[in-house]
Design goal:
The structure is a single chain. This protein is of the alpha/beta class. Helix content is 19%, strand content 32%. The protein is built from 6 helices and 13 strands. The strands form 4 sheets. The chain has a 4-stranded mixed beta sheet with strand order 1-2-3-4. A 4-stranded antiparallel beta sheet has the order 5-6-7-8, with no helix packed on it.
Amino acid sequence: KIPPGNAVISLVPTQLHRLLKRKAVVVWLRKTRAILLGGAAPTPKLLRRARELRLPVALAYGMTETAAVVAAQRPEEFLAGEPSVATPLPHAKIWVGDETGKPKRNGEKGRLWIQAASLFSGYYPVKRAKGPFGTEDFGVVDKRGWVRPLGRMDRVIITGGEKVHPAEVEREVRATGLVRDVRVIGLPDAEWGERVVAICTGNKRAEKKLRAALANRLVAHAQPKEWLWVKKIPAGKEIADV
């Protein structure tokens, strides 16, 4: 019931993807003040569609450790085609640094570091003094200070705005005793951003039992959406050829 002209809504790409299928909702979204879009990397197709519909999207960057958003762009910048997340919010500073946090030159790619008033104190039970936080994201910061995340430095899969640790899924799949070996990866997906895919060796006929066994072992977003059966688990760059 909030008048759209006063509304600011926060979505992950999967939510926006689904909402664009509803014409009445699109009309409402077009009249909002801003649509914060974050939590995962949106597909180029989704961004093109949002611009075609003239939606006031504001690409946002943040995480649980920073109490949500620490950088966002203005809707007019998004509609003009700006690909970056844009400037950090007033309470935050973001830069590209080496493994110690030492800043690199503007335009260089590397680990994103954050210093913010909203930064957490540490992971329980270990606490630390508030200081620079080295994320697992890599990206670039241009001479304007605008931030552009480019991907993850670890194996974490972001699906529907939720994090999935492949090693955890692999452990649970192996624990069923229904595969000889497994490798879990994330593949591009129009709706989910990335979908969880399990590459397995063993008997393909075990897939139905695998799905049933994992229903109580893994949260819904961590359960593989696709199963690929191969004779040998590919390594490194060979994964892309599966």
